[in-house]
């Protein structure tokens, strides 16, 4: 019996507090602690967590799932850790499974913004 090929996935960490992002091929889900990213509280900071998606466009996140676990610290530090781990996971995924030129383009857009 042949085993199924492993799914393309990467795991990245965001450091303000502890945020871990599991990024793999899937159905366009972005979940934080089991809930959709749109439900992150406080709402005003939700846009900060969603920044990499807004900067790069939703099409770059098409066909992938992101499951983010965050703990420790206050709300603001958790949001920044989520934001950082999303950006790092996307860059790592493009480096590993897409191509170097796309990865560099994404990285340049993110660095120009910050």
UniProtKB/TrEMBL annotation:
<protein>
    <submittedName>
        <fullName>40S ribosomal protein S16</fullName>
    </submittedName>
</protein>
<dbReference type="InterPro" id="IPR020574">
    <property type="entry name" value="Ribosomal_uS9_CS"/>
</dbReference>
<dbReference type="GO" id="GO:0000462">
    <property type="term" value="P:maturation of SSU-rRNA from tricistronic rRNA transcript (SSU-rRNA, 5.8S rRNA, LSU-rRNA)"/>
</dbReference>
<dbReference type="GO" id="GO:0003723">
    <property type="term" value="F:RNA binding"/>
</dbReference>
<dbReference type="GO" id="GO:0003735">
    <property type="term" value="F:structural constituent of ribosome"/>
</dbReference>
<dbReference type="Pfam" id="PF00380">
    <property type="entry name" value="Ribosomal_S9"/>
</dbReference>
<dbReference type="InterPro" id="IPR020568">
    <property type="entry name" value="Ribosomal_Su5_D2-typ_SF"/>
</dbReference>
<dbReference type="GO" id="GO:0022627">
    <property type="term" value="C:cytosolic small ribosomal subunit"/>
</dbReference>
<keyword id="KW-0689">Ribosomal protein</keyword>
<dbReference type="InterPro" id="IPR014721">
    <property type="entry name" value="Ribsml_uS5_D2-typ_fold_subgr"/>
</dbReference>
<dbReference type="InterPro" id="IPR000754">
    <property type="entry name" value="Ribosomal_uS9"/>
</dbReference>
<dbReference type="GO" id="GO:0006412">
    <property type="term" value="P:translation"/>
</dbReference>
<comment type="similarity">
    <text>Belongs to the universal ribosomal protein uS9 family.</text>
</comment>
<keyword id="KW-0687">Ribonucleoprotein</keyword>
